Amino acid sequence: MSSIRAIRGMNDILPDETPIWQFVEGVVHQLFSSYGYGQIRLPIVEQTELFQRSIGEVTDIVEKEMYTFRDRNDDSLTLRPEGTAGCVRAAIQNSLLVTPQRLWYCGPMFRYERPQKGRQRQFHQIGVEAFGIATPDMDAEVILLTARLWKLLGVADSVTLQLNSIGSLEARAVYREALVAYLEQHRDALDEDSQRRLTSNPLRILDSKDAGTQALLDGAPVLLDYLDEAAAADFTRLRELLDAAGVAYEINPRLVRGLDYYNNTVFEWVTDQLGAQGTVCAGGRYDGLVGQMGGKPTPGVGFAMGVERLVLLLEAAGVRPEIPAEADLYLVSFGEPAQCASLAAGENLRDAFPGLRIVQHNGGGSFKSQMKKADRSGARFALIWGEDELAAGTVTLKALRDTDKESLGQQSLPQAELEQTLRALLAQ
Ligand code: ATP
Ligand code: MG
């Protein structure tokens, strides 16, 4: 019978990869709280309607990427494809929309896409949402937060910030007409996807990866020229703030986001080191979303980054957090009575040395095979109990690493002195 395998595009993250994930998560946790952001943990499954209404019906995500199913009550549910919709839902439902409200989240997201490097069906995002402030100082803050994160992770040289303003809904409607009028004249030169989007979601054409379409867009009207006065002023102010903080950016007038809820500021951090999956972090302002979802109208700005892509980038940049050895102490025993002594001593040592990694040898075996495991565990010392030790009330301590081997070798200690001896040795 063939064995069961993981679902395509849903990867296991193995013990030799988790240190780099933990490194990223640890830095994020500390950094975000240093800016006053509190963590929110949200359900992975929500009502399908939540995503349809927030992300937008004619987006790639809602049209073709969602994992949607009926539960036993015949309700339509969806595995969350992103975090903002759920966060907004939770903020409304739990009356979190005080001003300002700074939140962050992390966890798995699900999209039915073609799996490839940096693109999975289950992937992980870390994101931030800041509610209640409509002025560009808040946009600057969330961007500064990401800029600092790259520095702390050691990848600041690998990413660049792309920035745009897409203005208000009304300005976009006017621009949309101008863009469609221009592109209609060149319909046959557009790629197939873009022809379809001409009626459904023309702004997404700006985002097309097709070289022919991009060339056509060189002559197209530019969204930035259509901004209303307030949006233009906010964009200028955001740029002043970023300049003052020394954060470099490129204005990309074709940057639009694949989700419908954005207005004004949109940004992406991109890298040239991950091939086609070059966007590591993306975000923007969404002042209409809370109201549209039934909450008291409240502005918001946020971003999400793909943790898999970030991890790939760290690896490409040669950032390798130290992988700690599995154990500090490895406990070996021979015979059932000795195993009782070893087990009890292990528990006492865990009381005495909180945080010390103490691994018990289970499953028996010869002295040679147990010592081989002890050595492979990376532990500094093995503690050995056999018949002789039990009779004499002692324990054998064996140095496993070259640095200790010469000075300590292997010695027998009274059981009662073990804690004290270890305390002295571990302090060295
Ligand atoms: P893309 O254009 O690469 O499909 P997107 O615009 O759909 O990205 P967002 O919805 O803005 O992505 O999500 C924010 C970030 O989450 C992305 O910039 C990326 O880093 C990450 N991300 C999105 N989809 C995936 C995926 N399927 N696998 C891995 N990471 C992803
Ligand atoms: Mg996508």
Based on CA atoms alone, the radius of gyration comes out at 28 Å
Which ions and ligands are bound to the chains?
A: adenosine-5'-triphosphate, magnesium ion
Main sheet characteristics = 8 strands, mixed
Q: Report how far apart the termini are.
A: 54 Å
**Structural class per helix/strand content?**
alpha+beta
Helix content: 40-55%
CATH topology of the largest domain: BirA Bifunctional Protein, domain 2
Query: Could you say what the CATH architecture of the largest domain is?
Result: 2-Layer Sandwich
Task: Kindly report the average pLDDT value.
Answer: 94
The oligomerization state is single chain
Please give the order of strands in the largest beta sheet.
1-5-6-11-10-9-7-8
CATH superfamily annotation of the largest domain: Bira Bifunctional Protein, Domain 2
Number of domains in the coordinates? 2
Would you identify the regions where 5 or more consecutive residues have pLDDT less than 50?
A: none
CATH class of the largest domain: Alpha Beta
Catalytic activity: tRNA(His) + L-histidine + ATP = L-histidyl-tRNA(His) + AMP + diphosphate + H(+)
Subcellular location: Cytoplasm
Organism: Mangrovimicrobium sediminis
InterPro entries: aa-tRNA-synth_II, aa-tRNA-synth_II/BPL/LPL, Anticodon-bd, Anticodon-bd_dom_sf, His-tRNA-ligase, HisRS-like_core, HisRS/HisZ, HisRS_anticodon
